[in-house]
Each structure stands twice: as structure tokens, then as C-alpha cells.
Write the C-alpha cells for this entry.
Amino acid sequence: MIEMEIDTETITLDNFLKWSGLVETGGQAKMAAQLGQVMVNGKVEKRRSRTIKEGDIIEYQGSVMIVKQAGQEV
């Protein structure tokens, strides 16, 4: 599991997918969510605007990432 630090308290799912490098574009992030290819905390998430926060676990195409706030330990 990879730890990904965010500099803000929350981030939207589509922005997280782009920022983390899991997808290259916003269009890819939108499609991944709409097609049910992304899991948040073990559940399929189809809302690209889903709010992601510290402690959330994001799974996409075999990559698993846990979100932590910059400067914090998970």
C-alpha cells in the first residue's frame, strides 16, 4: 500500500486520481469513476466529486493508496 500525502484537508476523487498519477487526465478520471473502476474504502465509487480525506483507501487498477495529510503519520 502506498501512502499519498495531500496538502489540503480534503480533495475530490477525480483530482486525487490525477494528482496521484493513477490517470493522466480529468477525462480519464471521470470515465474510471463512471465505469465503477475505482474503489474507496472497499466500495465501488462512481461519484467523481466524492470527497477524499485522510485515512481513505483508494484502489484503482491494482494500485492501492492510503491518503494522509502532509506532515501526519497514518
About this structure: The longest helix spans residues 26-34. The domain at 2-69 is CATH 3.10.290.10 (Structural Genomics Hypothetical 15.5 Kd Protein In mrcA-pckA Intergenic Region; Chain A).
